[in-house]
């Protein structure tokens, strides 16, 4: 069965973006960027895939993506043309591109997608969407950066619902960034 995976970057104080959706404050370098492109090519927006030599690279991890409204509106109208794309919103009437489907309630969709054959399903921001989907999230892939944001969009927001995960893999980089995989306990 496919897994719902929340793959996200986070600051030391638990923010995935700044108050205005900023994420350019996360440090990186060429080695880290190359690792991300190799390990998670499917998470690179379509507009950049050709530029970094990923144009024809098949998806490795995901073939569907769920985005919150702010995440969707921050990018191009068809951000991940190489994935089945859903934007979760109660206010957006229709997407800005026919390849992106607007969904009001993501839980039934996730349950349906999990039953289909395919690669895993990626939760691509934001914290409110992750909070709504927390009971369905099977795996976390958290890229932790050595920076304090001070304010912004929380990794997960919503109701108090303690949920245990077990670390299953960990890698660190000389920038002080580390990536940890957690599976639902």
Automatic annotation (TrEMBL):
Specify the protein name: Dihydrofolate reductase
Q: Which Pfam families match?
A: RibD_C
- Bacterial bifunctional deaminase-reductase C-terminal domain mapped to chain residues: 3-177
Which SUPFAM superfamilies would you find in this protein's record? Dihydrofolate reductase-like
Q: Which branch of life, at top level? A: Bacteria
Source species of the chain: Kibdelosporangium persicum
């Amino acid at each position: 069965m496919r897994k719902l995976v929340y793959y996200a970057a986070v600051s030391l104080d638990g923010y995935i973006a700044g108050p205005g959706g900023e994420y350019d404050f996360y440090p990186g370098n060429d080695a880290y960027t190359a690792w991300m492109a190799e390990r998670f090519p499917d998470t690179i927006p379509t507009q950049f895939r050709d530029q970094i030599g990923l144009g024809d690279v098949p998806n490795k991890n995901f073939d569907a993506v769920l985005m919150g409204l702010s995440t969707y509106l921050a990018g191009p109208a068809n951000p991940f043309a190489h994935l089945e794309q859903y934007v979760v919103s109660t206010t957006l009437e229709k997407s800005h591109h026919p390849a992106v489907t607007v969904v009001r309630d993501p839980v039934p969709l996730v349950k349906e997608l999990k039953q289909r054959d395919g690669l895993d399903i990626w939760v691509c921001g934001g914290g409110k969407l992750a909070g709504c989907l927390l009971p369905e999230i099977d795996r976390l892939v958290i890229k932790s950066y050595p920076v304090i944001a001070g304010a912004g969009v929380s990794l997960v927001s919503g109701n108090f619902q303690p949920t245990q995960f077990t670390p299953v893999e960990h890698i660190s980089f000389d920038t002080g960034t580390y990536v940890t995989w957690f599976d639902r306990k």
